[in-house]
Amino acid sequence: MLANSVETISTGHGLLEGPLWDQKIGLIVADATVGGVWRIAQGAAPEVVIPHRRGIGGLALHANGSVVIGGRNLALKWPVADGKDETIVLLDSNAAAEIVGFNDFTTDTAGRIYVGSLAFVAMGADRGGKAGRLHVIDLDGSARVVADDVLLTNGLGFSPDGKLLYHSDSLRHVVYVYDVDKNGDVHNRRTFTETGEDFPDGLAVDSKGNVWIATPQSGLVKGFSLVGAEIGSIRIPVPMVTSLCFGGMDLQDMYIVSGSEGLDTPQGAGIYRVRMDIPGLERPLARVSAPK
To answer: Does CATH number 2.120.10.30 belong to domain 6-275?
Structure first.
């Protein structure tokens, strides 16, 4: 078990998702119920980066200065400070194809985007046994399905060498791992670890290849070695841990975010930080072109 102390950075949020660290911006997160993308700095009030939009499941920064956001679609939006009121949709919902939205996503070192689609409304009661898919958006803006049969897609992250992609399927209580081809395709999906009664949610990979997985309702982030063996856990003071990322100048700060479920207030979510012995991996910028 890890003995590192957990520090509270910010509280009073609704349902936090998609934490992302950038060396210039700092920490940004999405609040799925309150809405918007927020910059969080300890000792300062949260600052709106992108207002209004609710239901965001994931975030990434694009090389063109925009923020990639998931939800009812996967789109590029610019920070409000840029004064550029524009939305460019990269992937849209398609009921006929059983795509009702997009959840978590990640980027590879080339700048491709890997994103999971949802076949049902994630916060709704009617799931109907439908499965979503894993999509990749290539640098030219074209998109293709590279894997299917994921009941509830969640956290995605690459190994340090980029040859493996980890993918949470929350409803199956499993984190998969794929082999990654040079052209961005994935194959040979297999079980990396099963989480028992816990639901795997957001995840992050450290520079040694250990995989850290948020397990909602348990209040824990659990760490797993390259072979899927549990190596430790981190407990935050609220039950609904949703996601995490590495940050700080040396990437040795783990930021953990939560929801309000299990608390007596709809705005009890928080952001927590713990100092890690092993640094994480910096998230590459997205570099995909807008679809034509």
So the answer is: yes
